[in-house]
Amino acid sequence: MLFDKLTRLLGDALRPKPEYITVTPVTDSQPAPVLPPPEALPRHVAIIMDGNGRWATSRGLPRSAGHAAGTEALRDIIRASDDWGIGALSLYAFSTENWSRSKEEVAALMGLLLKYFSSEIDELDEKNVKITILGDVDGMPEPQRQALLSAMERTGDNTGLRLNIALNYGGRAELTRAARLLARAAKDGEIEPDDIDEDAFAAKLYTAGLPDVDLLIRTSGEMRTSNFLPWQLAYAEMVFDDCFWPDFDRTHYMKCLAIYAGRDRRFGGVKGQTPSTTA
User: What is the model's pTM?
Assistant: First the structure.
């Protein structure tokens, strides 16, 4: 086993990371997407992985089958992000509202969560990926809570791709939590109320220390953010892909990155002017 791990590590180290990649076209009438150059890639990508249930229903399968298929797409998109040099990838996996789904579907999702971390943690750790869970970990069932805490502890010192997985997460709850932490600090005399600025607030979010999201991708054709990272998405570019999440592959991902690279990001300013540091 040790020999196999060393072999994989050596292969990863020697594998070239291309600056431009062309993939097979989606259809004969569409040009093949090309990976933008490194300087044009987003530092932080967030993805709302939507459409697992509808993917399964359209095939006459139980919704749990869609979530299982979505896990396969998840694995490849994480690998692609690492291969292409994306600095941070934030994934919306399970919201606080998702507890209202059927007991069978929630149980299937919790089972997939345990299976995913059991099967993937070795590779993620070997690839120097740092895992952070965004959300209320303490509110998860005990087996899942322990798996999440173990994954964060094991990869805590890694310096590669920052993989953020939103579980038992709600954006408004995150903002409320940050406000509560600052209020407690002010009450204890650790900070003056007048010293609370955007940087102080951002430091209390789950994503503290990371750049804001540059690109949000949502699959399945839905066009809303669904309470995902409301603070961090303030200036994000958004791309909505019609395909269901289990069908989202590197070709779709590369297309979204190319759309992002073609956007003119002015951050509230005028093209040609230097943006304000407070924009």
Answer: 0.85
8 Å CB contact between 168 and 94: yes
Q: How many residues in the chain? A: 279
Q: Do residues 51 and 118 lie in contact, with contact meaning Cβ atoms separated by under 8 Å?
A: no
| 227 is annotated as an active-site residue | no
Q: Give the residue numbers spanning the domain of 102.
A: 46-170+212-261
Name the catalytic one among 83, 98, 158, 212: 98
Give 23-75 pLDDT, tens digit per residue.
Answer: 334 444 667 789 999 999 999 999 999 999 999 999 999 999 999 999 999 99
Q: Which of 50, 82, 214, 241 is catalytic?
A: 50
Tally the domains of the chain.
Answer: 1
Q: Report the mean per-residue pLDDT for the chain.
A: 89
Classify residue 204: in a domain, yes or no: no
Provide φ and ψ at 123, rounded to 5°: -65, -45
* Whole-number Å distance between alpha carbons of 131 and 26: 32
188 counts as catalytic: no
> Residue 132 half-sphere exposure, CB side, CA atoms within 13 Å?
18
Residue 62 lies in a domain: yes
Using an 8 Å Cβ cutoff, are 216 and 238 in contact? Answer: yes
Q: How many CB atoms lie within 10 A of CB 158?
A: 17
Residue 117's domain is classified under what CATH number?
A: 3.40.1180.10
